[in-house]
Amino acid sequence: MSCNLKLAQILLFLMRYLPFSFLGSYFCYDNPAALQTQVKQDMQVNTTKFMLLYAWYSWPNVVLCFLGGFLIDRVFGIRWGTIIFSCFVCIGQVVFALGGIFNAFWLMELGRFVFGIGGESLAVAQNTYAVSWFKGKELNLVFGLQLSMARIVRMLNNLMGQIESQIKNLVGSSWGMTCIFSLICALALAYLDLRAERILHKEQGKTGDVIKLTDIKDFSLPLWLVFVICVCYYVAVFPFIGLGKVFFIEKFGFTSQAASAINSVVYVISAPMSPVFGLLVDKTGKNIIWVLCAVATTLVSHMMLAFTLWNPWIAMCLLGLSYSLLACALWPMVAFVVPEHQLGTAYGFTQSIQNLGLAIISIIAGMILDNRGYLFLEVFFIACVSLSLLSVVLLYWVNCAQGGNLNYSAKQREEIKLSHTE
């Protein structure tokens, strides 16, 4: 009994430290979006070049996310992998801040590149930690709690523009402390994970058979459709937020502060709603149906922003709700369709192709905005979300043909779990 009590306490601490160990990466990712006007003016760059700050973050992860998952699965283990990738995040943010201080755009690009080397691999470690310690119906809730912390710090990041106006030459340097705090939490998390492993008397994960690149062709069709949904959805969210502040100023006549506020409302809503939606998906199951609702609502949101002059708060609130719901329902599905020993690789590959999409779309979005304006950019985002919606429908039919496990209710999953333990 005392052993179980200790384990429960450790798992509770894991839930607490898990989001904080990735706080710095989440906070610093959207630094450029909060400072779009200031960076473009001070560095004298156009939108296309400004969006390179996001592209440079994504390019290394086209390879490193898959490699990061492989290293977590096969080489470092999850504990050392988390610590090493946290160090890259810290170094990259320091270099990025120095570029801002010395008005050196190339240095900011270098910082984002180094930051990206660790950032997405750190997210792979986060997902792997979650699915390693939390099984079954608790998994969606844990994903929701992680996402809630991510949204809170990204919301705070949108205050950076106002802070910059007060402390112009120090922007980025003090907030880089969030990365150091995250590194400390990663160390604490590694200790707690090691202690829990000792209490359970289980061996540390072995490397097993070496994963070959040819293994990718053995991924199931449902998993590939999850990849497509993920990429097409997020390329219509993150680049939009990256360019959203000026969009609300130009189209709706918002002040800079009001534009920052509405641009952050997606994260404001996601912070409390992510764990709520995670619990909802836990209790009901039906992951594909929830993903369908989220993508359809996002499509409506983008269409409202593109073709109407309705109060944009309505569309952005809908986007915040759908964004929260999709993450809670979509990401756990990866764990339902791959063997446990390949979870790190599967999540790594998901992040890899997502970053390929973000790197390409960030540049394309900047070019469209420079040459055609925001209306054409919104139409482009609508096309991306429409493709994601089509993929969800295909996933539903493919999953039905293969037994329907991705769309089981919570009761069905519990019955299957009990039947396997008997």
Automatic annotation (TrEMBL):
One GO molecular-function entry: dipeptide uniporter activity
Pfam family, one: MFS_1
Signal sequence extent: none
Record's keyword annotation contains Membrane: yes
Residue stretches making up the Major facilitator superfamily (MFS) profile domain: 5-402
GO-annotated biological processes: dipeptide transmembrane transport from lysosomal lumen to cytosol; protein localization to lysosome; protein stabilization
GO CC terms, sorted: lysosomal membrane
Keywords: Lysosome, Membrane, Transmembrane, Transmembrane helix, Transport
TM stretches of this protein: 6-29, 50-72, 78-106, 113-134, 175-194, 221-241, 261-281, 288-307, 313-334, 346-369, 375-398
Bilayer disposition of the protein: Multi-pass membrane protein
Catalysis: reaction(s): L-arginyl-L-alpha-amino acid(out) = L-arginyl-L-alpha-amino acid(in); L-alpha-aminoacyl-L-histidine(out) = L-alpha-aminoacyl-L-histidine(in); L-aspartyl-L-lysine(out) = L-aspartyl-L-lysine(in); L-alpha-aminoacyl-L-arginine(out) = L-alpha-aminoacyl-L-arginine(in)
Primary localisation category: membrane
Cell compartment(s), UniProt: Lysosome membrane
Family: Belongs to the major facilitator superfamily.
Function: Lysosomal dipeptide uniporter that selectively exports lysine, arginine or histidine-containing dipeptides with a net positive charge from the lysosome lumen into the cytosol. Could play a role in a specific type of protein O-glycosylation indirectly regulating macrophages migration and tissue invasion. Also essential for liver homeostasis.
Subunit structure as annotated in this protein's UniProt entry: Homodimer. Interacts with lysosomal protein GLMP (via lumenal domain); the interaction starts while both proteins are still in the endoplasmic reticulum and is required for stabilization of MFSD1 in lysosomes but has no direct effect on its targeting to lysosomes or transporter activity.
Record protein name field: Lysosomal dipeptide transporter MFSD1
Annotated source species: Jaculus jaculus (Lesser Egyptian jerboa)
Lineage, highest ranks first: Eukaryota, Metazoa, Chordata, Craniata, Vertebrata
